[in-house]
Amino acid sequence: KKNKKKMTEEEKKTETELDNNNNKDVQNNNNNAIVTLSPINSNSLSHKVDNIIKSCHGEMISTTANVAAAIWIAYKKARGESAVNWVGFYLIRQFAEPLTEENSILYLGPFNGQPAVARILFSRGVCGACVRTRKTQLVKDVHTFPDHIACDTRSQSEIVIPIFKNSENKTFENLVGLLDMDCPNLNGFDEVDQKLLEEICEKLGNSIKWPKLPLVDPPTAAELNVDQGK
Fold first, then answer.
1. Global pTM?
2. 164 and 174 in contact (C-beta within 8 Å)?
3. Contacts of 17 (CB under 8 A, 6+ apart)
4. CB–CB of 207/53 below 8 Å?
5. Which helix (H) or strand (E) holds 69?
6. 120 backbone dihedrals φ, ψ, rounded to 5°
7. Distance CA 42, CA 56 (A)
8. How far apart, in whole angstroms, are the C-alpha atoms of residue 135 and residue 130?
9. Could you read off the pLDDT of 65-88 as tens digits, one per residue?
């Protein structure tokens, strides 16, 4: 009888462990759920971008401002109000000569959404990673990204695309800015979005008449302290 009781307790223990593992699996599956996103009307959006570039004569500020608005509207029309909560541009700005990564910083450009961080060092956040790698950053959960900088505290996912004034030569010298988009939902962007947005950024890079902008103030001691984790 003692052996029988012992076996029963072990069986109960095993059953409890299995239940706990199953609950963990369900939770993990929910966190990593495959989200099917409503398609963006890419043809319509691309056509609007073409018209914006033409009507703005390739001028940087008016073109990027109108493109940010067009993307904002297109995503909300396709996926609802929670499709995006921030869409905008960051521009490469020098604070010293010559043009190098060490002498430059990201500066806020035209955008739609909440007021955002005005200056970002290349060593920080998703935007900084985009500059350093010269590649699109598709982040499906910003809480898993080290040193994420939120343009809006509601942001859960983000995509950042580099813009080169010569799309065939993707060097820092040709990097002029970034398109940054946030979503208040996890998994808010996918590889289809990435392809569409990269095509738009390539058009902007090759079509805008990117001016030589005046120097800006160098990073402050406070900015550098944050960068160094102080």
1. 0.83
2. yes
3. none
4. yes
5. helix 60-79
6. -135, 125
7. 21
8. 5
9. 999 999 999 999 999 999 999 999
Largest CA distance in the chain: 90
Please name the residues in contact with 177: beta carbons below 8 A apart, sequence gap of 6 or more.
64, 89, 90, 91, 92, 109, 162, 163
Q: Are the beta carbons of 71 and 86 closer than 8 angstroms?
A: no
Q: What are the CA-CA distances from residue 12 to residues 1, 23, 26, 89 (Å)?
A: 17, 16, 21, 58
- What's the gap between Cα 230 and its chain centre? 25
Pairing mode, strands 119-120 and 104-113: antiparallel
Q: What is the DSSP letter of 160?
A: E
| Cα–Cα distance, 207 to 225 (Å, whole number) | 38
Within a 10 A sphere around the Cβ of 175, how many other Cβ atoms? 21
Residue with tokens 């996103």: 37
Q: Which amino acid is at 41?
A: N
Burial-class residue 75 by CB neighbours within 10 Å (0-12, 13-18, 19+). Answer: buried
Burial of 9 by CB count in 10 Å (0-12 exposed, 13-18 middle, 19+ buried)?
exposed
Helix/strand/coil for 94 = strand
Q: Please list the alpha-helical segments (H only) found in 80-212.
A: 125-133, 191-207
Residues in the chain: 230
Question: From CA 223, how far away is CA 194, in angstroms rounded?
Answer: 31
- State pLDDT tens for residues 179-210: 999 999 999 999 999 999 999 999 999 999 99
